[in-house]
Amino acid sequence: MDDHSGADFSVKPTLVGEKVILRPFLLDEDAETIRTFLRDPEVGRLTGSDSGPSDPEPWDDKAEQSMRGWYGTRNEQPDRLDLAVVDRATGACVGEAVLNRWNSANRNCNFRILLAPSGQNRGLGTEALRLIVGYGFEQLGLHRISLGVFAFNPRARRSYEKAGFVAEGVLRDSLSYGGEWVDEVVMSILASEWQRHRGHPELI
Ligand SMILES: CC(C)(COP(=O)(O)OP(=O)(O)OC[C@H]1O[C@@H](n2cnc3c(N)ncnc32)[C@H](O)[C@@H]1OP(=O)(O)O)[C@@H](O)C(=O)NCCC(=O)NCCS
After folding, report:
1. What percent of the chain clears pLDDT 90, i.e. is strictly above it?
2. Distance between CA atoms of residues 156 and 149, nearest Å
3. Model pLDDT, residue 5
4. CA of 46: how far to CAs of 41, 151, 156, 201, in Å?
5. What is the Å distance from ligand 1's center to 69 Cα?
6. What one-character-per-residue DSSP string does 114-142 give?
């Protein structure tokens, strides 16, 4: 897609927070965590990657090659930003934060995040999303960042709300999980909102 916005997604920054650092993937260093979150059934459920509970597939050569093919090429992508989330307490990668589906004409993007269980529930996710969303508005010049969160994931929704995302609609029965239909809530944040609160809507 032609870039009319001046945004340069081929730059892969390192973003430093109090609890986390977001940095480009280092495949050999991060592979163990990546395997962990790709195989975690609860992460698969919450991100909509799995269609129902099932026994984890054995991690075979094909899975390893596919993981290496994907995570080994994230730093070369000119139209999306995939960053590893590193827990500053241990120095280890605990997940990923991603701006994807960039539309340069409308200066918008989708956002997604996932943390392995070892990184969850300690405020790392909320801080990571503030860092990458701030980068999206302040350095990439985005106008709007949106995301989808399934109705069975109130923790993620809370984390998004804490950083200033606003629910704007419901995609009814968007996911089939274990034979049940699940709604997906669409949330977004605009550059003008970010400018006002910089990820802390409680302050305004
Ligand atoms: C979603 C995710 C990124 C959030 O990051 P996190 O570091 O675990 O979350 P935080 O600790 O920053 O914040 C979670 C907030 O939700 C709250 N929370 C936790 N469980 C909750 C629940 N069942 N209902 C409502 N709120 C809940 C926490 O209390 C906290 O809010 P508080 O700070 O006001 O107390 C992370 O848990 C994750 O990656 N989970 C697995 C994959 C996933 O769900 N990805 C998102 C798909 S849309």
Report:
1. 94
2. 7
3. 59
4. 9, 9, 9, 25
5. 29
6. EE-GGGTTSSHHHHHHHHHHHHHHHTS--
Check residue 175 and give its pLDDT.
98
- Segment 113-122 shows an average pLDDT of 98
Interatomic CA distance for residues 54 and 158, integer angstroms:
28
Of the residues 155, 174, 185, which should be mutated to test ligand 1's pocket, given the most ligand atoms within 8 Å of the CB? Answer: 155
Parallel, antiparallel, or unpaired: how do β-strands 166-177 and 144-150 relate? unpaired
* Class for the domain spanning 15-143: alpha beta
Q: What is the pLDDT of residue 156?
A: 98
pLDDT per residue over 4-52, tens digit each?
Answer: 456 899 999 999 999 999 999 999 999 999 999 999 999 999 999 999 9
Residue 2 pLDDT greater than 60, yes or no? no
Q: How far apart are CA 203 and CA 59, in angstroms?
A: 46
Neighbours of 102 (CB within 10 A): 23
User: Can you point out the beta strands (E) in 61-179?
Assistant: 81-87, 92-103, 108-115, 144-150, 166-177
Verify whether ligand 1 is closer than 6 Å to residue 121 (CB atom).
yes
Please answer whether residues 82 and 96 qualify as being in contact, where contact means their C-beta atoms are separated by less than 8 angstroms: yes
At which residue do the structure tokens 């200033």 appear? Answer: 164
Exposed / middle / buried, residue 82 (Cβ in 10 Å: 0-12, 13-18, 19+) = buried
